[in-house]
Amino acid sequence: MRGTMKRYAATIGFFDGVHRGHQYLVAQLRACAASMGLPSMLITFDRHPRQVLHADYVPKLLSTLDEKVELLWQTGVDEVRVLHFTPQMAAMDARSFMRDVLAGELHVAVLMMGYDHQFGHGGGTFPQYQAWGAEAGIQVVRATGMPGPKVSSSAIRRLVSSGDVAGAARLLGRDYMIAGTVVGGHHVGRGLGFPTANIVLPAGKMTPASGVYAVSVLLPGGERRGGMLCIGNRPTLHNGEDVTVEVNIFDFRGDLYNKEIRVEFVGRLRDERAFPSVDALRRQLAQDEFQARLLLGQA
User: In terms of pTM, does the model score above 0.85?
Assistant: First the structure.
């Protein structure tokens, strides 16, 4: 019966952010699959392996699981499979994983490995992966590295956490994005003449450093508007230590409460700082809007 099953050319990884390095690997996978007359498959995990290996590890990731799966599908592969990463899976050596999971459950015929990638408890060398794959009926091939400086999820996380969203975009191949539900706030922005939507983000989603950013906002229904977003604790208004994510959406007056919006970071405008008065804050917000519209091409 095994010979009648659909078999795949696949690659495997956590793929946080689905950045340019991942995209380069997937392009090679699709070309390899096409040359062999096989459908292509991306295999990923539902949680970061370190969450299972270290119970106290709480990662801040570039993409939620849903976001990652959506981005993986956008690469044009034929199949995306998400594996539930458990302590039992973490304990499997590569030989067993290739035999029982890749060949036995997912019907992988060709496995493409990134130039520096390892998997399985204890890892292995590329010749070992090739030998273990041959035992399981899997041809193991090696992808080439992307030309130029190395692109990694950890490097992008460092850029995002420092507020360098333009640098992060260069490595991602697109603007860094957050998505969350709009909740009620203190209506302070409305009193200043700059009403904001307060966004609650999913647990584990990385937010850029505190500051003010020019953003593109995708509204429910697909409408897109420019805006400026502030991450911080509003020091001028003595908001305490609570950090909020608030976006002022340009030329928008609708009701967004309890709806989800998506925000893409186009550029950083300034650090968050305390102003001597509310009027001084209002004048700065007007300047922020002017600068954001310039950056977004909406001035």
Answer: yes
